[in-house]
Amino acid sequence: MSLIGYARVSTSEQDLALQCDALMAAGVTRIFEDRGVSGAKVERSGLNDALAFLRAGDTLVVWKLDRLGRSMTHLLQTVAELEGRGVGFRSLTETIDTTTPTGRLVFHLFGALGQFERDLIRERTGAGLQAAAARGRKGGRPIALTSEKVARARLLIASGLNVREAAVRVKVSKSALYMALKGIPVPNR
Known about the structure:
Helix content: 40-55%
CATH architecture of the largest domain: 3-Layer(aba) Sandwich
């Protein structure tokens, strides 16, 4: 069983020393790092390398929860994947350790709160869409290809322009104009 560390700073001017010192004091044998990488970035090579390096029985250790996850959802997903591989997770600042029953309980409570938050957002979004529909508003992007534009494009094509040139003139995509000319309904995108 090895303790494997992960440290990240958002800008290249920031220093990893505080995190690395805390990780080493916790008994970490190897530290993977990301410098100048925002936590919002999906692609973090140091994290990817750490996750690939971990084996069943190992524990991933971070200085603070926000060093690992882009969001609560991402954090929960990452820890669940680790748990599925038999890898523990430990956050030094929040004193969470999923290799202990108490640590798993605390982390699952975080998960439940995260799911509750997602459900509330989904509920509010649905209510907002219903309220907008009741006021006659329709969601989505406005239709770019109106019947007037199709008629104008037909006239331009009849006058000698090709479909591509007519599409540019009426300011729609060539593929949308082709579909409209063939009588195929054009989806909103």
